[in-house]
Write a structure and sequence with these properties.
The protein has 7 helices and 2 strands. It has helices spanning 4-29, 37-55, 68-85, 103-127, 155-171, 174-202, 204-213, and strands at 62-65, 136-138.
Length: 225
């Protein structure tokens, strides 16, 4: 049963998207206007951002935080990448568009975005009040290595990146691709800072053992020796 669960998790977004396409086709045949996935994708990002901000209050007291200089470096990359990523693509047909996706392909991307956000939220709920939007040490901080944290060391970032690249594919534009790459660089910078911080604050023995067992962002990816 357990070996079948990962396969189901991988295929679920595509199956859900296929079902959505089938339903939309059926509605179109019955005279209802076909729904475009673009506003759905935008709505998913808005809903995720709003819910994430609301959940920021669920967090333990901060005991210590990283320096402003360390924080500014990755934040600058994320802000620039995010602004470029936000450049609208719907209806654009200029030289900065590299490809077009079909409606079915766009719905598959939508399903992957849902899967990415769901994975991030699973990690957020599993981490509970130890979560922080910046690099900090919380009260009762410890290494969490269960649930999604047994799959990757930074599952929140993994889910967000899945949503980012699914959105970039749906856009098919240069700003979408460049923004996704910069967001990836910024997230990796933050993840490395967090790991260095946790290693110093919680002790190298505890965190190094975890790093040797679990990859950083890609499931079953490379791990330090």
């Amino acid at each position: 049963m357990q070996s079948g669960a990962p396969r189901a998790a991988v295929h679920a977004p595509a199956l859900a998207s296929a079902c959505c396409v089938s339903i939309m086709d059926e509605l179109s045949e019955r005279g209802f206007p076909a729904m475009h996935p673009a506003p759905v994708i935008a709505g998913l990002w808005i809903a995720f951002a709003a819910s994430w901000i609301a959940a920021a209050f669920w967090s333990n007291k901060t005991v210590k935080r990283a320096s402003l200089g360390d924080e500014l470096r990755y934040r600058a990359v994320l802000i620039v990448g995010g602004l470029i990523f936000l450049v609208p693509a719907h209806g654009y047909e200029g030289p900065l568009r590299f490809w077009y996706v079909t409606r079915a392909e766009a719905w598959i991307c939508t399903g992957l975005i849902v899967a990415g956000f769901a994975f991030s939220w699973w990690a957020r709920l599993h981490l509970g009040p130890l979560w922080s939007g910046s690099v900090t040490r919380k009260t009762d901080h410890r290494v969490v290595d269960t649930g999604p944290y047994a799959v990757v060391r930074h599952p929140i970032y993994t889910g967000i990146l899945l949503a980012v690249y699914a959105t970039a594919v749906a856009k098919g534009t240069l700003p979408g691709i460049v923004g996704a790459i910069l967001i990836t660089i910024g997230i990796r910078m933050k993840a490395r800072l967090e790991e260095r911080w946790l290693r110093e604050e919680l002790g190298p023995d505890a965190y190094d053992a975890y790093r040797r067992k679990v990859s950083m962002l890609v499931p079953f990816g490379p791990r330090p020796a």
